[in-house]
Amino acid sequence: MVQLGGMRRCLAAWILLALATAASGSLHRSILSARDHTYGENDKVPLYANKVGPFHNPSETYQYFDLPFCEPSNLKHKSEDLGEVLEGDRMVTTRYNITFKTDKETEELCSFKLEPETKRKFRSAIEQDYYFQMFFDDLPLWGFVGKLQTDEKKEERYMLFTHVHFEIAFNDNRVIEVTVSTDPDHAVDITDDEPTDVKFTYSVKWKKTPITFDRRMEKYQKYSFLPQHLEIHWFSIINSCVTVLLLTGFLATILMRVLKNDFIKYTKEDEEDPEETGWKYIHGDVFRFPNHPNMFAAVIGSGTQLLVLALCIFGLALVGVFYPYNRGALNTACLVIYALTAGISGYVSAHLYRQMGGEAWVRNLLLTASLFCGPLFLVFCFNNTVAISYRSTAALPFGTIVIIFIIWALVTFPLTVLGGIAGKNNKNEFYAPCRTKKFPREIPALPWYRKTIPQMCMAGFLPFSAIYIELYYIFASVWGHKIYTIYSILFIVFIILIIVTAFITIALTYFQLAIEDHEWWWRSVFCGGSTGLFVYGYCYYYYFARSDMTGLMQTSFFFGYMACVCYGFFLMLGSVGYRASLLFVRHIYRAIKCE
Q1: How many Å apart are CA 268 and CA 224, to the nearest integer?
Q2: Contact at 8 Å (CB) between 565 and 372?
Q3: What's the longest Cα–Cα distance across the chain?
Q4: What is the Cα 467 distance to its own chain's centre?
Q5: pLDDT by residue (tens digit) across 470-518?
Q6: Which of 78, 173, 303, 539 is packed most tightly, with the most Cβ within 10 A?
Q7: Cα dist. 393→268, 400, 522, 559 in Å?
Q8: What is the DSSP letter of 394?
Q9: Is 419 exposed, middle or buried (0-12, 13-18, 19+ CB in 10 A)?
Q10: CA pair distance 146, 161, nearest whole angstrom
Q11: What is the Cα–Cα distance from 190 to 145, expressed in whole angstroms?
């Protein structure tokens, strides 16, 4: 008992040590935000430059001064928390001197001669629609570096914006709103390679607003995503959900009628004692454990953990934690919650593995701990190497990688082991209404449409049809510059996805058993998780038809990380399909007499 208490105290210390580093930046901001955003007359308001990059390649970002802007003599980097670093933020000080309530007509930032090499950098940026991002009092600003303009001879000219205008709204002693605009009348033609003198300037205009400080983020929520189409968005989602629910209800009604007829038939057969047929015929094999039980248990354990992770993230989103531009909050939450829920995967996997009679416990725990993290780590290594070669801010610094590894080594893996120990020591046996026979029955020859891949295609289509409308908005937010704030819709769609996945997997499991195919265990996982494959197929459609993303880095980031997300979907929905099928199979075989 003393050793167990010491283990718990040691584990608690591990968790506090690892997670304090991950959450300290976000916690510090949330505690001090209301007090730090107050200013007196002529107080300097902080303006940080964050990053630049091609507008159509949101993952391909670079440090602001990788372009030859007016760099301050004492350049300082703003400290960032783990979530911001994962987001690719690298904020630095600038030469802009903006003081509270002080208007400025035209203030010179710097002036210098643009040499040919400098012009080539700016021309390349303009050609790729480079944008810049800044943060003024923690409010985001965007603007374009320049534009391509066609002259009278129908030749393209590269115009570099040299003047930036800030319009800032305030209430009492706080900044409420800020917008930035570039002046086309102050653009310099940099098409040729001749050295050109250029002067960068800015202007500031302050205005009073009745909006209070606690409502200053409502602007981003209100105008975050196609407000004029919000009603259409709601209507499309409701229409899709109603259609899917009607189809699911129709399928459930048919299935219940068929089952009722089966129960009546098998009851009469028990009285007359004829030869058994259909799904009753395989009652001695239906609870025979699947091949590769170690892998199967790890899949169910990892999928269960990801399902709990998704529900926790939705819970935080619905209570308003992920407000617009709470930078890195979602990344930090996913990392921390995944680490803290690792015990769930260890427990579920080890307990199921013990029920199946497994004995390779070390292999089971290692497989469970690495089943999702392993592929994600490999994809990360490739993408991070590509980002380093591009010198992009999306490349994680070595220190951040060390912190993530410490969290995995001191929190995720130990919790997986402890969960596995608890699952192994759980003495509950696997409940099977029918006794499994010593030798398995031979499965009859199946037509092609009854095999695994065609069944997966049928299983994944209906759940995918429930979410495909919402996928565009999610992709435009994650792989674009839109902001997603309608978490209530997303949560409803997620619940419908779970329900539809469960029902369609149950239906296919019944049809599989009805043709005397008793190997339903892995099939239920594949059919349940097949929606993840449909989502990955949608990725190709979105990339080539709905986006303008190009280049090796953006392509590798998009397809690499979306493969990890869809793989996580496969594990999560596969575990849902298995659980639903298991409940169904137990129910129908409990309702009949079997030896």
Answers
A1: 63
A2: no
A3: 102
A4: 15
A5: 888 889 888 988 877 778 888 988 998 998 899 899 989 988 888 888 8
A6: 303
A7: 71, 13, 42, 19
A8: T
A9: buried
A10: 5
A11: 12
Cα separation, 49 vs 395, in Å, equals: 18
Predicted confidence at residue 277, as pLDDT, reads 58
**How far, in Å, CA of 347 to CA of 526, rounded?**
22
Q: How distant, in Å, are the alpha carbons of 8, 300, 353, 567, 571 from that of 371?
A: 26, 11, 15, 10, 10
Structure tokens at 288: 């025979």
Cα gap 417→377, rounded to integer Å? 20
Q: How far apart are CA 392 and CA 398, in angstroms?
A: 14
Q: Are 127 and 144 in contact (CB under 8 A)?
A: no
**Single-letter amino acid code for the residue at 474:** I
CA 238/CA 586 separation, integer angstroms: 34
Three-state SS for 178?
Answer: strand
Question: The sheet that has 174-182: what strands, in order across it?
Answer: 104-114, 196-208, 163-171, 174-182
Residue type (1 letter), 463 = P
List, for the chain, all residue ranges whose pLDDT scores fall below the cut of 50: 1-34, 223-228
Decide if 569 contacts 494 (C-beta within 8 A).
no
DSSP assignment of 514-583? HTT----HHHHHHHHHHHHHHHHHHHHHIIIII----SHHHHHHHHHHHHHHHHHHHHHHHHHHHHHHHH
CB 549 within 8 A of CB 558: yes
Q: What angle do CA 488, 493, 496 make, to 5 degrees?
A: 130
Q: Can you state the angle between helices 452-478 and 230-272, rounded to 10 degrees? A: 160
Rounded Cα distance, 50 and 566, in Å: 30
Q: Residues 5-64: pLDDT tens digits? A: 444 444 444 444 444 444 444 434 433 344 567 898 889 999 999 999 999 999 999 999
Task: Locate 149 and state its tokens.
Answer: 């303009």
Side-chain half-sphere exposure of 364, counting CA atoms within 13 A: 30
Contact between residue 142 and residue 130 where contact means Cβ atoms under 8 Å apart: no
The first and second tokens of residue 153, run together, are 């001879």
Q: What are phi and psi of 80, to 5 degrees?
A: -130, 150
Comparing C-alpha atoms, which of 495, 501, 471, 512 is closest to residue 571? Answer: 501
List the 187-189 sheet strands across, edge first.
146-150, 156-161, 187-189
Residue showing tokens 């908005």? 473
